[in-house]
Every structure is written in C-alpha cells, then in structure tokens.
Amino acid sequence: MIKNLFVVPVAFLALLAIHACNPLNPAQDIPSYITIDTISFEGTDPAHGTSNQKISDAWVYVNDNLIGAFELPTTFPVLSEGKQKVMVIGGIRINGIAATRTSYPYFQGWTENIDLKLKETTVIKPIEKYNPATTFRYTADFENGLNLVNLPDGKAEPQMIISTSVLDPELNGTACGGIFLEDSMNRFSIRQKADTSLFLPTGGRPVFLELNYKSNHPFSIGIISSYPTGEEGSRIMTINPSANWNKIYVNLTAAVNENFQAQGYNLWFFGDKLESIPRGEIYLDNIKVLY
Fewest CB atoms less than 10 Å from the CB: which of 22, 154, 226, 246? Predict the structure, then answer.
C-alpha cells in the first residue's frame, strides 16, 4: 500500500534530533549511535526507468518507533542496545524546497536487525527500492525517440539532444529532450507524448512527477486537464536554472484534485524567454509519473 504524505518543516527535523539526544533518565540511559552517510537506490525493473534518485533525508524507525528524520549525512543517538530492528525510509524535498520534506511514499524502505553497542557508532548503508505497489503511469527517457510534443501556443519546438557536451552517460544514456529559446522562438509550451491523456487518481492519493533537468533559464511545470468542453492548464511551480543535471520531485496531487472532474491529464512544460538571457537552453530527461 502506498503511504500518505507526512510533510515536516526543516525546523521540525532539528527538533526531532534534539529530542532524541535528551536522555529520559541521565543516570541510566546511555545511547548507542548510528551513522548514515548516504542512501543508495536499486532499480529492480527496467520499465521503471532510471535508478537516479536524490535522497536527501533518512526517516529512521527503531522497533517500529520513529526516532527522527535526519538530513544526510547524519549521526544520531539511539537509546537501545543489542539486536534492534532498524528501518530507514528515504526522504525527499517536495518541489525541491528544503522546508518541505517527506519520506517518499513510493520507496519501500530498508529494514535490518542491527547489533547496537552503547557509546559506540554503527555505520549502516541502507538501499532503497521502489514500493512494489507503486503505479508507474508514465515513463520517458528519450532513448527510443522524442517524448515531447508541441502545443499550439508554443513557438520553440522540442528536440532530441545527443550531444556529449550536454549528456551525462550514467544519467541520460544516449539522449535527452531539449528546448531552445531565442529570437522569435521566444515561448515554448509542450506536453508528454502519449496516445491518450493520463488517468490519475483523485481523492488525495499522492501523485508525483520525477524529472531530471538541466537549464540556464527558468521554466514552469503544470498539468493540462481535459474536459468535454475543452482543456484547462494549471501551473504548479517554476523551476530555477541549474548548471548541472538535477533531480526534482514535483507534487501533482493538489492540481489533480482541484480538477477531479477531468477526464484525463497531460504534463505541461512551458515558459517565455527572458530578455536578460540571450539563448535559453532547457534539457529534460527521465520523466516519470507515479502514484
């Protein structure tokens, strides 16, 4: 079963850590320590696309009790010793915002019995996987063609990019999508390539877009909701430029719920050229819609 989102502000992460450090009984409670440097990710099905993830936090449970949510790398105290059931769930930043963190509902979590020793630090190396209950409604990695199509209000056409100066072989494979903004091609408006609109669940079930991108120009992400009378676009967020390839997790849930009567949805990438940037370059890859 896919879990609901539990979002915490960054200040609460610190509060959890402080609470974990305060012994309940200073005379008796001497902690063990756990160190987590990173959480790796293991893909189990090529149909799920890239294994690249941006896991920023560790949500840690000991014997099914939440110890805290910690920004990585981290070392934290645990008031237990001996064999303990430790579960770690990878955490992400919703919409790339540091102040909105959550354990990602599509991660399975890593569990192992760990032998903890008082006053000593145990290093663990969790490995995340996708939750088997996750639905991959749409995936596109551009390895087999251009997975973006232009909309009528767009001027700059999406293109297939195979330049080695742009691609990271481990991340992109042999191709990605690109949009260039210049001169009269000063606006782009595109959606994912699909035979039909995407069916997405409403009623509060989390729906996320995973995306790798690289750009020198801001661009926006939204959804286009399809109704019998026409289509309606909903902007979700604007993504700032990133000189290096970056991963973002975009929360589509609210926009989908606001258009719960729609017959289907399309991803929407769009933007207008800024005069301060002579040539806008936007690269997209590894598009996934999950619920």
Answer: 22
Q: In what order do the strands lie in the sheet with 74-78?
A: 74-78, 32-36, 121-123
Same domain, yes or no: 105 and 238: no
Total of domains in the chain: 2
Say if residue 111 is in the same domain as residue 160.
no
Q: Shortest CA distance to 231 belongs to which of 222, 242, 218?
A: 222
Residue 259 lies in a domain: yes
HEC string for 176-218: EEEEEEECCECEEEEEECCCCCECCCCCCCCCEEEEEEEECCC
Q: For residue 234, what are the β-bridge partners?
A: 223
* Alpha-carbon span 7 to 2, nearest angstrom: 15
Q: Is the pTM of this model over 0.85?
A: yes
Go through 78-111 and write b for each residue having 16 or more CB atoms within 10 A of its CB, e for each that does not: bbbeeebebbbbbbbbbbbeeebbbbbbbbbbbe
CA distance 19 to 70: 12
**Contact present, 171 and 50 (Cβ < 8 Å):** yes
Domain boundary among 128, 156, 189: 128
Please measure the distance between the N-terminal and C-terminal CA atoms of the chain and give it in whole angstroms: 11
The model's pLDDT over 32-58, given as tens digits with 9 standing for 90+, comes to 999 999 999 999 899 999 999 999 999
Do 97 and 169 have their domain in common?
no
Residue 98 to residue 101: CA distance in whole angstroms: 7
Residue 209 and residue 272 in one domain: yes
pLDDT digits (tens, 9 = 90+) for 241-282: 999 999 999 999 999 999 999 999 999 999 999 999 999 999
CATH number at residue 268: 2.60.120.200
Q: Is residue 1 part of a domain?
A: no
CA dist., res. 236 & res. 41, Å (int): 27
